[in-house]
Every structure is written in C-alpha cells, then in structure tokens.
Amino acid sequence: MQVLVIYARQFDFEDDNKRRIQGGKIHYIDPTTSPADGEQGFPPLELSVDTSMMPNFTEVPGVYDLEFTQRRGRNNRPTLVLTKAVCVGPYVFSRSQQIREVPD
Fold first, then answer.
1. How far is the C-alpha of 104 from the C-alpha of 94, rounded, in Å?
2. What's the rounded Cα separation, in Å, for the pair 37 and 26?
3. pLDDT means per 10 residues in the chain (104 residues)?
4. How far apart are the first and last CA of the chain?
5. What is the CB neighbour count within 10 angstroms for residue 64?
6. 59 three-state secondary structure
7. Does residue 19 contact residue 12 with C-beta atoms inside 8 Å?
8. 43, 52, 56, 67: most buried, per Cβ within 10 A?
9. Cβ distance 40 to 34 under 8 Å?
10. Is 63:2 a contact under the CB 8 Å cutoff?
11. How far apart are CA 23 and CA 47, in angstroms?
C-alpha cells in the first residue's frame, strides 16, 4: 500500500514502574481512506511501530510502500503490525501549496 508518511517519532523511556518502553509512531495519509461525515480531505492515520522499523523512515515527509500483517490485540481484536516500509521518494511541499491568498 502506498501512503504519504507525514510524521515519524522514535521513543525510548522508563515508565512510572521503571519499565523500559521503546518503539515508534508514524502518522500517514492513505488516499484510499474516506473521511467521515462532516470531514473533508484525507484523515491522518497513526500507527505504533517496533523500534526496528524506524530506520526505514529516512525521508519524512515521504511516499512509502508499507506492508502489514495482523496480530491478536486487546480483547482479541486485530492489530496492524508494520512488516515492511520502503521509501519511494521524498514529498516536497511547494511554497505555492503552503500559502494561499484568502479573497476579501
């Protein structure tokens, strides 16, 4: 699945019980995801990922081919697990896309 990754963050810290917490989060836009009623545009999606996947995110924002598998999560609900992330290329916002004049 090809998506636009707009944010990636790796974390490594100790929680209140002195347990080490490691991992990462990515935020991405999947152009096949439809907005809900009352929304416009492409809703961003967030995914927790294993620390081992974070080096794959070399160009953010960037276009990536992502592959997933599923595992059983809380209450036996399926949870997505990122298994592969390949950068197709960087995504560059042009200045004309960022700034729009608002008509009076």
1. 24
2. 25
3. 96 94 96 89 93 96 96 92 96 69 60
4. 41
5. 26
6. coil
7. no
8. 56
9. no
10. yes
11. 11
Longest dimension (CA), the chain: 56
Record the pTM. Answer: 0.82
Q: For 19-45, b where at least 16 C-beta lie within 10 A, e where not — what string? A: eeeeebebbbbeeeeeeeeeeeebeee
- Tell me the domains of the chain and their CATH numbers: 2-93 (2.40.50)
Find the radius of gyration of the CA atoms of the chain: 17
Q: Determine the residue type at 27.
A: H
Residue 101: predicted pLDDT: 61
CA-CA distance, 61 to 65, in Å (whole number)? 13
Strands (E), the chain: 2-14, 20-29, 45-49, 62-72, 78-90
Residue bearing tokens 């992502």: 66
- 3-class secondary structure, 19: coil
Q: Which of 4, 48, 1 is nearest to 28 (CA)?
A: 4
